[in-house]
Amino acid sequence: MEPLIETRTSKLRKVIAQYWQRWPRTLFVLGAFVYVSLLLICIPDTSATSKLQEFSTREQFQTQSVAIDQTHNQAKLRHFQCVAWRATSKCRPNGPRLSQNDKNCSEVIVNDESGYCEIEDVNSGERFHVMRRYCNGLKHNVPFRCSSAPDFANFHIEGYTAVEKTRIPGFSLPNTVGSSRAQRDGIVMVVYPKLLPSAYATIRVLRNVLNCKLPIEIWFHVDEINGDYAQLAPLQRLAVNVRGISFHPMYNPNAKGFLSKIFAIYNSHFDRVLFLDADNVPVRDPTFLFSTREFIMNGAVFWPDFWHPRRTLFNLHARSMLWELIDTPFKDMFEQESGQLLIDRTRHAAPLELVYFYAFHRPNFFEKLELVYGDKDLFRLAWLKLEAPYHMIKAVPAMAGRSINGSFCGMTMVQHDAEGEVLFLHRNQHKLTGMENEYNAGIGAPQSDEYPDLVIWTHLLSFRNNTNTNLYLIDAYRAAPEFPQSQPCYGKRNVENQKLFELQDITRMSFAGIEADIRHFAFEAARIRQSREVQWVGEYPNNSAQGIVFR
What we know:
Low-confidence stretches: 1-21, 38-73, 536-551
Transmembrane segments: 23-41
Largest sheet: 8 strands, mixed
Shape: globular
Pfam families: Mannosyl_trans3 (PF11051)
Mean pLDDT: 86
Keywords: Golgi apparatus, Membrane, Signal-anchor, Transferase, Transmembrane, Transmembrane helix
GO molecular function: alpha-1,2-mannosyltransferase activity
Family: Belongs to the MNN1/MNT family.
């Protein structure tokens, strides 16, 4: 056998042979290397872009935000001073600047001006843009000055501080109980002289018509009574006869008007409260509400108003200055009607504390800037701010009123339960008086009884079931000559051939007799008041012997 003859290139050939045998793997590695190299060459450097984006975001934050460490939920009040009003164009606070229209801090900002108040942190020298105003950010003819901007900027931080105390172990709202005994359910009502006949009538319906056994708290402000406690005589007599009624005077000088409702709920002796406006009449015993799934799951049930961002009387839309004040994103939903509220006070101490802060903080920006109407939306806003659970009734309000020759005038807001059935009739356009009133002549329907209050519930105008609520648009109007020019109406005037709304005769409904009942009871209250059949002893009624609680 001849020996193998090696040449000078044998080692190189071995290497080539070895790589040739592994060529698929080698080609794969080389291809990957080339691909990555091309990516690195072709893709632009994003570091500069990211830095620009970071700068833009930071600039936008300082331009559009109060910037009081709110993004980190730090409750840090800052010492601000006003610099000036900075005017902008295009009706946007972030629109092009109009420096020629700038104003000093004491000058009034008039209608249809857009811009912002510039403020400065006295300690750090940082400057921020607050009270950012679109042309329609406030209602027409609502003036303001940038001198208010420092307080405006700190408002939501003060609210955060108010809520923080509810997280302290052992905190509870006034008059709530621990777990040692069962929770107390009850009705809370606020009265003042004009509402006394309505309150009497509503309580009589609850007790004598609907057989409701829930205890009732009657709250009143001593200044509104003006020391004449005999005005409460009809209610005291009613309390003697039906029991389960307690009287609660309010002395807080600010707890008047709309704010008395918040004060009463906050200080109620009930753990779970159904608040009713005194002129809001249930057509069924409302006790069942405390057992509904919606209340048990959420601890709070609210009811919608007529109005929403697409049709609002109160300027509550995405560009309202309200959302900046409370540091909460705009929520596209129905406004709230607070003629009835169902709240578990033991479960919702934090949002109730925030509602109380909203109501009694001074200066009151809600009132000063007319951002909301009275107490109407404060509950909803506090729950939204804290992301607390609640249920908003899905059925939109109906209207009770009269229809004459095809012209409808809604004079009462009608609310429903979670199943869409009528539950409350809020007679907010015509308070019961129990007495003759020539001013209202021509509004009411013919009546065959002797009760002087008008019959105004002959028809019910309801939004049709299974209709998109985005199409729910309520009109506020006058309906002369069918109704006096002085009478405000709500609903749809021309009810013939309505595709979205349905007009029904109330006489065919289960609650048809309720209006006759409340008119009767209001007449009864007026007679008691005039005769003063119940005498008051001293400053407060000496009625403990009859089992009436007066706190």
